[in-house]
Amino acid sequence: MARYVVSDHHLGHANIIGYCDRPFDTVGAMDTALVRRHFEVVDPGDRVIHLGDVAMDMQDGTETVERLETLGVDLLVRGNHDVGLSDGQAPVPVVESCRLSHDGYDFRCAHRPSDIVDSWDGWVIHGHHHNNDLETYPFVDAAAQRVNVGVELLAFRPLALSTLTDVLDDCDATTRLETVADARARLE
Hints:
Oligomer: single chain
Radius of gyration: 15 Å
Largest sheet: 6 strands, mixed
Strand content: 15-25%
Helix content: 25-40%
Structural class: alpha/beta
Mean pLDDT: 94
Low-confidence stretches: none
Number of strands: 11
Strand order of the largest sheet: 5-6-7-9-8-11
Number of helices: 5
């Protein structure tokens, strides 16, 4: 069983294609590709921790619940577009943040990195910033101990925690990697 992290699918959100320069012509093509790519890496029995904005659901949570079930998410860290989801409505636990450990690393996960308490001195895994400010929020910023798992930076696939810790093992304190492709190139 592997554990995966990912954020910001924005399924059903047509405007995200232009906002994040996603390589899709329609929202239907985007949704189909994102679900297909998700299951290219996630197997039955794997655990998926989604760091928010599964869908563009600002109303009643119905779309978020449907998309959580489609992706087989095990834990949702609430994002700013998951606000329509009421307590107890989701088929999985919904939290504001969570803590994960893997291969000697401790991570605090939140949708926005600014939601992590200042006293946390470990690694932060977050979403929210997509690929819109890679200077500040690249895939890996070792100096800030921050990892951005927005789907645009992950080739639109969830990231295994084992892959993430392999990448971090290969980083020094000044490493900055814009995307997971940059990280994989370093590991080859």
